[in-house]
Design brief:
Structural class: alpha/beta
Radius of gyration: 24 Å
Oligomer: single chain
Strand content: 15-25%
Number of helices: 13
Length: 434
């Protein structure tokens, strides 16, 4: 059974100060995990985790990771602005984007970010729109076909829009060497949310072998290999977490067997994990507000897919713990007694956090924890049905809390309109509905 990182009494107290729904993050867990990642790759002096900002762009959370020497993996203009606002230097910004607008490339160059080119055509486009490529650059590889491990098909790179073919990759390296790049990197992302400890070591062997060939055939100095993200987390209670130290050891063995004999023992290892770094250390806190009994039993909560879209978009599983409410029992360890569809209020039938989910008996007013929303949770939110974005709260190591993003208000929404609301009311100052 999954247990939240917060107790029922703690949560009741927090919910009295911050109205539900809100995302809650565990500072202690984030720090422990960052330390484990650094320890797992401490054998590589140049190792750096470029946190995938897309997973969670809250500056207060990124700042915690910066304390451990992490950089930022950015994929858009705004994410670059976040890195700049946090004072992240260019060498600690990896700009990995696709179908990239010219203004994004211009800002990346201004910041001195390492540009990870997604396509060979982006190199001349960058030069036309942003200026000369800097001394350090990277290229993204797509091997095509299916990516397999011993436990079966992991993903289908051949259907992915990302990266270059092998032939394009070699040509891109020659282009960049001719342009004076003194250090080149190699990147690939072949599978998402993998389980077990084999993905990174298998990917490392592919990229290490390719790096040796690129060096030998183009003369490029391959300075770093970026293993990207893809290390998964256990969303379901019966799933085992990945062992990052075992993963790091597997990459080390591949490094020693492939790169060191080729005289490339100075290559730095990079990662851009988002889900693994932050996912388990966030949860969506919501409150039961209705129960509907028709052909099924529906439990209505005050959160909806605008707060967490993964179940609606992917059918993704997120575990739910019923915590209880002030003055009532602690239900966090109670066994399942009912079967519910847990729903939000959007006018979409897929606005469900769970379908046919066994839960304890839920009373109106009970607090629920929806687990593992620290990555691709709040960051994927939106405003359908005029629903407003929820707050984000950080549970500090000492048990105190800090509001790190306030909830949106109606005035935030209307402030984005270019036409004053009074003019929308058919040109009348009073409401047309009165």
């Amino acid at each position: 059974m999954k247990q939240p990182f917060v107790t029922k009494d703690q949560l009741v107290d927090i919910a009295e100060r911050y109205p539900t729904p809100f995302h809650l993050y565990d500072e202690a867990g984030i720090r422990r995990n960052a330390e484990a990642v650094l320890d797992a790759f401490s054998w590589n002096p140049g190792f750096r985790e470029y946190f995938a900002v897309k997973a969670n762009p809250n500056p207060a959370l990124i700042q915690i990771l910066l304390e451990y020497g992490c950089g930022c993996d950015c994929s858009s203009y705004t994410e670059l602005l976040i890195a700049r606002a946090l004072g992240v230097p260019g060498e600690k910004i990896m700009f990995s984007s696709n179908d990239t607008p010219a203004e994004d490339f211009r800002l990346a160059r201004e910041l001195g970010a390492i540009v990870n080119f997604d396509d060979i055509s982006h190199i001349p486009f960058f030069e036309e729109e942003a200026g000369p490529v800097g001394p350090v650059a990277s290229c993204r590889f797509n091997p095509g076909g299916l990516f397999r491990l011993a436990n079966g098909i992991m993903d289908n790179p051949g259907e992915s829009k990302y990266g270059m073919t092998e032939g394009q990759l070699f040509e891109a390296y020659r282009m960049l060497v001719e342009r004076g790049c003194s250090m080149l990197g190699l990147h690939a992302f072949l599978a998402s949310n993998t389980h077990g400890n084999d993905y990174y070591p298998a990917l490392a062997r592919i990229l290490f072998g390719l790096a040796v060939r690129l060096h030998e055939e183009t003369g490029a100095h391959v300075g770093f290999v970026n293993l990207s993200g893809g290390v998964g987390i256990p969303y379901r209670p019966d799933e085992e977490p990945c062992d990052i130290r075992a993963i790091g050891e597997g990459v080390r063995r591949a490094f020693e067997e492939v790169l060191v004999p080729a005289g490339m023992g100075d290559v730095a290892i990079c990662a851009e994990m988002g889900r693994f770094m932050m996912g388990p250390y966030g949860c969506l806190v919501t409150r039961a507000i209705h129960e509907k009994n028709i052909y099924k039993d529906y439990l209505g909560v005050d959160a909806s897919a605008v707060d967490l879209i993964r179940p609606a978009m992917y059918g993704a599983y997120h575990h739910i713990t019923v915590m209880g409410q002030a003055g009532g029992p602690d239900k966090s360890s109670w066994p399942a007694a009912r079967t519910y569809d847990v729903t939000g209020s959007l006018c979409e039938n897929n606005d469900k956090f769970a379908v046919d989910r066994g839960l304890p008996e839920v009373d109106r007013g009970d607090l629920l924890v929806i687990h593992d929303t620290g990555a691709h949770g709040h960051s994927m939110g939106y405003n359908y049905n005029g629903r407003l974005r929820s707050a984000e709260v950080l549970l500090r190591e000492d048990g105190s809390t800090e509001l790190i993003r306030r909830a949106e208000t109606p005035s935030d929404y209307f402030a984005t309109l270019t036409v004053p609301f009074a003019r929308l009311a058919y040109g009348r100052k009073e409401s047309p509905w009165t």
